[in-house]
Amino acid sequence: MKFFINDAQDVVNEGIDGLLTDPNLTRLDNFPEVKVVLQKELDKNKVAVISGGGSGHEPAHAGFVGKGMLTAAVCGDIFASPSVDAVLSAIIATAGEKGCLLIIKNYTGDRLNFGLAAEQARELGYKVETVIVGDDIALGQEVEQRGLAGTLFVHKVAGHLAEKGKSLDEIAKTAQKVANNIFSIGLSLEEGKKFQNPESSRLSSSEAELGLGIHGEPGVKTIDMEKADDLMSKAVEKLKEYLPKKNNEKFVLLMNNLGRVTPIEMNILLNSFQKLEIARQVEYIIGPSQLMTSLNMSGFSISLLKLNEGLRDSLTSEVEPVSWFIRKFGGNSSIESPDLPDTMPFKPSENMQFKNAIKAVAEELISLENDLNAIDEKVGDGDAGSTFATAGKKLLEVADKLPYANTAELLITIGRILAREIGGSSGVLLSIMFTGAGNSYKEESNIGKALMSGLQKMKDYGGAKEGDRTMIDALQPAFSALENGKAIDVVAKKARQGADSTKEISSTKFGRSSYLSEESLKGIPDPGAEAVAIVFEKLASL
Q1: CA of 198: how far to CAs of 3, 48, 279, in Å?
Q2: Cβ distance 386 to 369 under 8 Å?
């Protein structure tokens, strides 16, 4: 395919530069390392409303920054979640005493990075609430529902209430109610093509796909290519399985062009929709237009939101964002970027028992690199050992700078090191756990209870639980034993039993193992759980 670009590596940065010709918008001045687009005229006496995610979905998310909608948008690379530091920068730059709301689409990377940023911001004294939107009904309600274009309803309602000066608690509760009453589904004729190394389509000229995600993930089923009326009918029939059954229920329709459908085709599809019975229950429509795209995907999505009188003003009030009306042409600008908290803000202090334990664990993680990578090659992407080894090397590097004498400070510092120095979901998950544990230890000096509290934070943001074939299978029984005052050798045995149990778990919805067959997983431990067990065994041997 041909593209109007200069360099594939610069697509996101130059796209944001183009957007910032809007005189109402600006960015933080550490762009492009941190890609935060925000209102130029900030009112910190109101709740800040922040969203974001991977780029490639334009105009979402930065195109909806402006009075009446988002205060700021945090932009990642194409289809990649923005970093924790980027989200934290947006919070610090925009939030005043009334706090801020983070609106998060239900994807693992977004949940983890936005979630950890929220935790760090709370630790700094900011009021932060989160709303997770999972409006995609394609795969059913028994699995994690993805966030699609229906997320824009939440942006609009939350932005309206913030502009009216409502409290963070009221905005968060209303936004969550809105999120719980959105139903979306997509249909595509061809996936979007990336600017770099575009993949060939999995669909033939005689096929369409129902229920695919906004990153081109496979849908619920491949269907025959048919007329517009028939394709729209199939999408709506799937959607109706999850809609309220009341005939007098009223809805707002958001009709979204996923990127490459021509305006006349979108009008044809809207005409197809109005022929259906459900159309008589629709009172308002947004679109049809490009609202949350998937690069140049040849497809559309429809989202229905249950309408009540309380939402009417929020949904119909005027807004400032350029994606909703014609604007004047302006120039770029920037404002000073906030200083982020130091990775190691606490003074070094001594506790030789803790220092020796961390040194031993770090050396053990480094020595395990090849063995854990070999396990991960069978059930993942082959880098689990390298991830843990990197953590070990960093801990050795800063070994003389840690606050060993203060357990809470030590746990929080380890959490920050993992967040900023370790790649992948494992680093973020463990960072969430250690940060949560440190904050809990401040309230009650019980290491077992603190670690269990941190583990619950990890479970809340990551979504996995014991039995889902993750490191939690080793962490949960070990921390439970610690909480109950058991000796370290007993704790290590519990961790080992938990890790060994993952060899028998052959069905999971989390991590890369969820993509593999039961036969492929049989007899192979989860590498994260195995690392946890070995760490506790090392501690027991000291």
Answers
A1: 11, 37, 37
A2: yes
Residue-wise pLDDT for 409-448, tens only, equals 999 999 999 888 776 788 899 999 999 999 999 999 999 9
Gap between the Cα atoms of 297 and 253, Å rounded: 21
- Asked whether 351 and 405 are in contact (CB, 8 A), the reply is yes
- Tokens matching residue 106: 């239900």
| 160 included as an active-site residue | no
DSSP 54: E
Could you give the CA distance from residue 19 to residue 37 in angstroms, rounded to a whole number?
Answer: 9
Separation of alpha carbons 173 and 183, rounded Å? 18
Catalytic residue among 57, 155, 160, 215: 215
CB atoms within 10 A of CB 32: 13
Dihedral over alpha carbons 380, 381, 382, 388 (to 10 degrees): -90
> Taking the model in full, what pTM does it have?
0.76
pLDDT digits (tens, 9 = 90+) for 472-502: 999 999 999 999 999 999 999 999 999 999 8
DSSP per-residue string spanning 470-507 = STHHHHHHHHHHHHTT--HHHHHHHHHHHHHHGGG---
Low-confidence ranges of the chain (pLDDT < 50): 326-329, 512-517
Which of 466, 459, 436 lies closest to 449, judged by CA? 436
User: What is the separation of C-alpha 167 from the centre of its chain, rounded to a whole number of angstroms?
Assistant: 24
Q: What sign has the CA pseudo-torsion 470, 74, 259, 17? A: negative
- Cα(119)–Cα(135) distance, rounded to whole angstroms? 25
Distance CA 203, CA 139 (A): 19
Q: What is the DSSP letter of 417?
A: H
- Those residues whose C-beta lies under 8 Å from the C-beta of residue 218, and which sit 6 or more positions away, are 202, 209, 212
Beta strands 221-224 and 72-78 are: unpaired
